[in-house]
Each structure stands twice: as C-alpha cells, then as structure tokens.
Amino acid sequence: MSGTTNDTTVLTREDPLLGRFTVRPLEPESDLPMLHRWLTDPKSEFWLLTEASQEEVARQFRATVASEHEWAYIGEWEGEPRFLAELYDPAHSELKDVYTVRPGDTGMHFLVAPTDTPVPGFTRSVITTVMELAFADPGTDRVVVEPDVRNRPVHVLNTAMGFHVERTVSLGEKEAHLGFCSRDQFAAATAAGTTTGGDRR
C-alpha cells in the first residue's frame, strides 16, 4: 500500500505503470518561479495566465493559500514536481451563481507541467491522483469541474474519471462545461484502471 515521503506529503499513490505520485501543499514563495514558468507556457492557455507577471501569479497563489475555502498542491512524480492541483469550496466561488451547491461538493482544477517529452498515460494518472486527493477527504461526496468548452483533452479525461456534464455555463471569460462526479461514479469508472489507491493525512 502507500506511504508518505516527508512531513509535508498529504497523499502518496503508487501507480502500477508509472510508479510513485506524491502530493504536498503549495509553497507560494519557493514554488513561484516554477509556477510562473508553467502557467505562462502556451500549453497552459486555459488557465488564462499566459501573460501574467511573476508578481501576479504570486498574488493569486498567496490568496489561495491564505483562503479558508481553497487549497493548492504540488504533485510530484518520482520526486520531481510535475503538476498543480487546486481544490475549492464551490459555495465560495463563482459557481454558486450558476448551480445549487450541495453539502459535500468540492471543486477541482489541475495542470500538468508543460513538457516537450510527454509520457504515455501520464495525464490520466495525474487526474486520477487529484481525484483521489479530493475523495480522501470524507467530507467530499462529489467533485465539480468547469473546464473551458474548447479544452477537449480535459473533457476526455473527465469522462474517463466518471464525470457527467450537466450543461454549459458562462464563467467570466469562458464558456465552461459544468460537470459532476460522485464518489461511486469515480470508483466505477476507475475500477479497471491503473490506480491502486492513495493514503492521505
């Protein structure tokens, strides 16, 4: 089963094909140069930060870390930072204006670090890890997503995780597919997948 690698690790997951994934809280100051590089890469266009300065990125993530309703994490693969994950309470976000938030709903975003040498199956393993992070909290009954309608690769991944799109909604600068995935839907969708589960503390 899974273990932990250091005092800041909140989740460790062993993937049968790709090995160890760990998740730790984001550190705004030490992670900032890396985050700015990831978020301003053209491959990260759907995060709407490709033109952001380092200070603008810092301001955003300092606010996230200080919030009682948002949580940001850095995911590592075999000890190297490879993805960003955000969980949030939809009742304290712009989503509260477009659907009726239920107790137990948790919003989710993720970003895989841009690379010119992608690993087959890696992004699916990342989203599986992030979903397990969300559902490791016993208070989470359902994960909510709102990806840009143009982000087709993410729509495919969300479907593989068990998400069902309810409708399209307008959120600020984007049109988004509002989707939901219950704990049971995620378990059913990934039952034959490449996940062995994770431990959270």
Automatic annotation (TrEMBL):
Q: Name one GO molecular function term.
A: N-acyltransferase activity
- Which SMART domains has this protein been placed in? AlcB
Q: Name one GO biological process term.
A: siderophore biosynthetic process
UniProt xrefs under Pfam families: Acetyltransf_8
- List the PANTHER family hit by this protein, alphabetically: LYSINE N-ACYLTRANSFERASE C17G9.06C-RELATED
Q: What is the protein's known function?
A: Acyltransferase required for the direct transfer of medium- to long-chain fatty acyl moieties from a carrier protein (MbtL) on to the epsilon-amino group of lysine residue in the mycobactin core.
* The name this protein goes by in its record: Lysine N-acyltransferase MbtK
